[in-house]
Amino acid sequence: MKLKKILLSSIIIWIVSAVFGFITCGYLFNWVYQLPPNIWKSAEIMAGNLVWMNLIGLFTATIFVLVFAILYKGIPRKGMKKGIVYGFFVWLLIAVSGMITMPFYMTISPVVVAYWIIQALVLNIIIGAILGAIYKE
C-alpha cells in the first residue's frame, strides 16, 4: 500500500461524496426531508457542525480506501469494474443492512430510508469506480 495513493484517493473520494451529497440531499431531493415526520435540525444548527461533518467524511473516505487497498487482490475484476464490485458490496453490507430497519425503531419516513438506500448505492458505485480507476493495474 502506498501512502500517497491512499491519501490522494481518500481526498478525491471525500470531495466527490461531499459534492454528490450536496447536489442530491441539498438540492435535487431536499423535498424528501420535508415529509412527515419532520425531525431534521435547522440549517443554522447544521452549519455549526460543518467542520465535524467534513472531518468525519474524510475519515470514512479513508476507511473506504484502506479496506479497498487491503482487499484489493481478493476483489474480482480489474480497474473500474473492480471498484464497482467493491462499492456494491460495501453498499450491500453497510448501507442496506444499516438502514433497512430504521423505520422500525425511529420516527422517520420510509421514503427517506428508501431514498438513502438508493442514494448510497449510486454513490458507492461512483466512488468505487473512481477508486478502481486510480488503483488500476
Please render the helix and strand layout as text.
Blueprint: H1 3-28, H2 43-48, H3 50-71, H4 79-99, H5 102-105, H6 110-135
Helix pairs in contact: 1-3, 1-6, 4-6
What does this structure look like?
It is a single chain. By secondary structure, the protein is mainly α. It has six helices and no strands. The longest helix is centred in the first third of the chain and has 26 residues. The protein is globular, with a radius of gyration of 16 Å. The model has no long low-confidence stretch (mean pLDDT 89).
- Beta-strand proportion: under 5%
Based on CA atoms alone, the radius of gyration comes out at 16 Å
Q: How many domains would you count in the coordinates? A: 1
User: Taking all residues together, what is the mean pLDDT?
Assistant: 89
Query: Distance between the terminal alpha carbons, to the nearest Å?
Result: 13 Å
What series of H and E elements makes up the topology?
A: HHHHHH
Given the helix and strand composition, which structural class is it? mainly alpha
Q: Helicity range of the residues?
A: over 70%
Q: Which regions are unreliable across 5 or more consecutive residues at pLDDT < 50?
A: none
From the spread of the alpha carbons, the general shape counts as globular
SS field, number of helical segments: 6
Give the total of beta strands. 0
Major pleated sheet: none
